[in-house]
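Input record, target 12 of the design panel.
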């Protein structure tokens, strides 16, 4: 037997010992959360209906809030919210100010310094109209007509999207603080486009508005927890929980409650 063959088991043993030592010196965040009995969650509180503060109670409410409350309950730990904002969201993960965040869209720049869980929600663009006009539309193609006016807010991603989606329609721009959906409410346009998340919030505020049934969202992007990049044990645990909750129909229930999905 060659010397390299004799040394191979010894090298493997040394590697396993080194890994065990590293894990002992730097235990997973999962172990710390269970021992401390507290899950720290960073959230902006300005993303209705995902995470926002109730003006009366000042409590956090929303889709994401229901998600992390259930997660903490299933872990058997207390939940602690840590206020943050979008520009410092990543910094808080890197600086260990919280153990995960409420949902953030998948972004490869973010992924250079922070980890992501598996997605549990999808963000995308949807068209909106008045309920009284709904019978005029049956999908994306039905909007792309010369007799349809699509309102957009100047300079937004939705302006560029609408020009690409509907080359045959009339595109009407409004300048902030005016908003595109106000043109639909005022019947100066038949359609506006926005995110599925804002659409859910708008329909709650303005019951006369609704989304046009489409076969799929456009400009789709997954949403997931942001997590510390180097802690694979913690990431795996979170992903297993998301998989179980998908299987149980938990996220479907939240879709109906917060996003108005059937």
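The sequence produced for target 12 reads:
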């Amino acid at each position: 037997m060659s010397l390299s063959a004799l040394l191979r088991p010894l090298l493997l043993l040394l590697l396993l010992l080194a890994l065990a030592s590293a894990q002992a010196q730097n235990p997973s965040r999962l172990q710390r959360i269970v021992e401390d009995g507290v899950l720290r969650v960073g959230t902006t509180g300005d993303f209705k209906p995902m995470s926002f503060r109730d003006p009366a109670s000042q409590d956090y409410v929303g889709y994401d809030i229901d998600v992390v409350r259930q997660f903490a309950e299933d872990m058997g730990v207390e939940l602690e919210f840590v206020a943050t904002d979008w520009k410092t969201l990543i910094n808080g993960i890197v600086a260990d100010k919280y153990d995960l965040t409420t949902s953030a869209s998948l972004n490869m720049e973010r992924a250079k310094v922070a980890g992501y869980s598996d997605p549990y929600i999808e963000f995308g663009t949807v068209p909106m109209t008045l309920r009284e006009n709904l019978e005029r539309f049956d999908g994306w193609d039905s909007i792309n007509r010369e007799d349809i006016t699509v309102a957009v807010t100047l300079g937004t991603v939705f302006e560029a999207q609408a020009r690409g989606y509907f080359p045959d329609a009339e595109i009407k721009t409004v300048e902030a603080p005016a908003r595109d959906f106000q043109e639909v409410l005022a019947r100066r346009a038949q359609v506006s486009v926005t995110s599925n998340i804002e659409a859910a919030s708008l329909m709650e505020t303005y019951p006369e508005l609704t989304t046009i049934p489409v076969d799929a969202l456009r400009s789709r992007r997954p949403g997931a927890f942001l997590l510390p990049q180097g802690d694979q044990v913690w990431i795996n645990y979170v992903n297993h929980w998301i998989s179980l909750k998908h299987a149980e129909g938990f996220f479907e229930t939240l879709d109906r409650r917060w996003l108005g999905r059937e």
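The chain has two domains: 27-120+225-259, 124-220.
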